[in-house]
Design goal:
Helices cover about 50% and strands about 15% of the residues. It is an alpha/beta fold.
Length: about 160
Amino acid sequence: FCRLCEQHSAVRFEIYGDGPDRAVLEAKHGDKVKFHGAIPDMSPCWPDIDLLCITSRHEGLPLVALEAMSRGIPVLAFAVGDLPKLIRHGDNGWLIDEGDLDAMAACLHQWQTLSSQHRQKMSEKARQTIAKGYSPRAVLPQIIDVYRQAVPAFQ
């Protein structure tokens, strides 16, 4: 993430979360990246985030991606774990080959140059993705069906 920010000096980067390398990274990149540390409730932070960049090399299906997209925040991430099931490249976010920071930087630049109408369209598609496939309305019927199928086994 910090190497990505080095390629975009005009963009404000912020990191939410904490880890053992924070002090070293903050000392080296603190002039370009704002380090917030652990945030117990991201609700007040989401309105300030335009694009969520996930630079993890290993993921399952990160809740942060679901949370961001449910708020209309597109995600730019490496195509790892189940992120390819969630993100459609160039439609509701961007997926990049793992570790390809140059491609990630290019997509970040593309996001910056999109018209406000195109940004709004992408944001709405991110929101719709969650509503259609991951919201309680979409998921609860599937869970209830599993329980219904399991009940006869216990009778």
